[in-house]
């Protein structure tokens, strides 16, 4: 199967009109996707996306177009027979890498393209991505990883040993996941722009649908946060898990002060308390506010940053992002590092398409890498799932393993047409849920 053409589309949903997804740093996000399709000389196509929140999505589309020549003309087999080599090829173009390397817009674009390649691969094998990965041998998984820059934290042999140790029990966990699903937490009650009334109504609705783990946005105004945290605790009680997310608004010492005032609400973690690049700042905050944990990852741009966060105790919960890291290959090595450092992976999913992706990733993590559910909950937010051809299935707050071949991010043609951004055209809310 030969890759013949790659298309990229700028898709934007007007979520800012209902303040879905709003937080202290991003008060008006329009959930958006730079949406890639890999066309082949056969009937199969691979679809992938990277997530943005509106303006700037066009930059990702342009960056995807710059990466496309690295793939066109290649056979799928030439890629899947050397996944690590393919990944280095995509991230290592001798001129293009200057606008990264492995960070920012170009890395978001890498992620969309790499995600689309894995979608095509999974479709060609007739399996959902989590199953494709879970059926791979430890050697094949390690063979998909570019270990450059992280061998001081994890070697290929150590990664192999982790995967081999879980081999004998993989099938048990596959059966358990098919029966019970993977646990999640939800952000859909706690968006910052929601009224108190809506916060209460959302909590009630989500609890009735099975959730007991909730995240609330904080960081705009302390008194306001105290009031909202009281409300959410009134609604969810004290046995449910509560998490907080500041989306990078504080300085380091300010984060410590602020969290002292919110400690009475017993958060499990505070997410993104400060700049996503400040490894030592996170470590300082974590030390000062323990036992409240520090979580980060949605803007942790590559495996090298994750390595430093783990080495420096800068995070206690790893929220890797399926569209921020350079796709599945880079995610694999971050999961393996997290396992070695004893850090739970709770992937970020507040955005369009991210829930569709993380279900596969968390299933793989449990089946092949972590082999435990302790402190593992994947994020879930309620928006835009109807736009996908194979919408995810939640049962009692748990992600049920997808059955359809691929990586679940193929969007319906109608949604793509309706929400394609044509530069200045007003967005509509017609088919939003
Ligand atoms: C703008 C977005 O909705 C963010 O608020 C969201 O990704 C959030 O940080 C999250 O953790 O889900
Ligand atoms: Mg967040």
UniProtKB/TrEMBL annotation:
Domain (Mandelate racemase/muconate lactonizing enzyme C-terminal): residue spans on this chain: 196-292
Essential cofactor(s): Mg(2+)
Keywords: Lyase, Magnesium, Metal-binding
Catalytic EC class: lyase
SMART domains to which the protein is assigned, alphabetical: MR_MLE
EC number(s) reported in the record: 4.2.1.68
Record bears the keyword rRNA-binding: no
PROSITE patterns listed in its UniProt record: MR_MLE_2
Reaction catalysed by this enzyme: L-fuconate = 2-dehydro-3-deoxy-L-fuconate + H2O
InterPro entries, per the entry: Enolase-like_C_sf (IPR036849), Enolase-like_N (IPR029017), Enolase_C-like (IPR029065), L-fuconate_dehydratase (IPR034610), Mandel_Rmase/mucon_lact_enz_CS (IPR018110), Mandelate_racemase_C (IPR013342), Mandelate_racemase_N_dom (IPR013341), RHMD-like (IPR046945)
Keyword 4Fe-4S recorded: no
Protein name listed in UniProt: L-fuconate dehydratase
Organism this protein belongs to: Neorhodopirellula lusitana
């Amino acid at each position: 199967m030969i890759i013949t053409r790659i298309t990229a589309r700028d898709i934007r949903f007007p979520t800012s009109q209902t303040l879905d997804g709003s937080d202290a740093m991003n008060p008006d996000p329009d959930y958006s996707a730079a949406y890639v399709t890999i066309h082949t000389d056969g009937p199969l196509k691979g679809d992938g996306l990277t997530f943005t929140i509106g303006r700037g999505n066009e930059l990702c589309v342009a960056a995807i177009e710059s990466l496309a020549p690295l793939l066109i003309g290649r056979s799928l087999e030439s890629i899947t027979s050397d996944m690590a080599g393919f990944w280095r090829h995509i991230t290592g173009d001798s001129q293009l890498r200057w606008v990264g390397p492995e960070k920012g817009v170009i890395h978001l674009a890498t992620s969309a393209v790499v995600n689309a390649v894995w979608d095509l691969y999974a479709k060609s094998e007739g399996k959902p991505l989590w199953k494709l990965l879970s059926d791979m041998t430890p050697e094949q998984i390690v063979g998909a990883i570019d270990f450059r820059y992280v061998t001081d934290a994890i070697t290929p042999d150590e990664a192999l040993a982790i995967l081999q140790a879980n081999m004998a029990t993989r099938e048990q966990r596959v059966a358990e996941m098919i029966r019970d699903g993977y646990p999640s937490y939800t952000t859909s009650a706690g968006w910052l722009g929601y009224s108190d009334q809506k916060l209460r109504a959302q909590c009630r609705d989500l609890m009735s649908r099975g959730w007991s783990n909730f995240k609330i946005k904080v960081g705009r105004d302390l008194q306001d946060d105290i009031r909202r945290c009281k409300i959410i605790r009134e609604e969810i009680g004290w046995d449910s898990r509560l998490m907080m997310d500041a989306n990078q608004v504080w300085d380091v010492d300010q984060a410590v002060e602020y969290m002292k005032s919110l400690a009475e609400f017993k958060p499990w973690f505070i997410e993104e308390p400060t700049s996503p690049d400040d490894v030592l700042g996170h470590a300082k905050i974590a030390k000062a506010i323990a036992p409240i944990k520090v979580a980060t990852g949605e803007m942790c741009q590559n495996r090298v940053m994750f390595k430093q966060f783990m080495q420096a105790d800068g995070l206690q919960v790893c929220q890797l992002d399926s569209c921020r890291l350079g796709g599945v290959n880079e995610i694999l090595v971050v999961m393996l590092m997290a396992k070695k450092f004893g850090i739970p992976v709770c992937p970020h999913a507040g955005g369009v398409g991210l829930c569709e992706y993380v279900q596969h990733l968390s299933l793989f993590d449990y089946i092949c890498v972590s082999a435990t559910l302790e402190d593992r909950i994947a994020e879930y937010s309620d928006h835009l799932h109807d736009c996908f051809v194979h919408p995810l299935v939640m049962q009692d707050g748990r992600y049920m393993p997808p059955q359809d071949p691929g990586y679940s991010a193929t969007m319906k043609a109608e949604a793509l047409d309706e929400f394609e951004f044509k530069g200045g055209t007003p967005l509509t809310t017609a088919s939003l849920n």
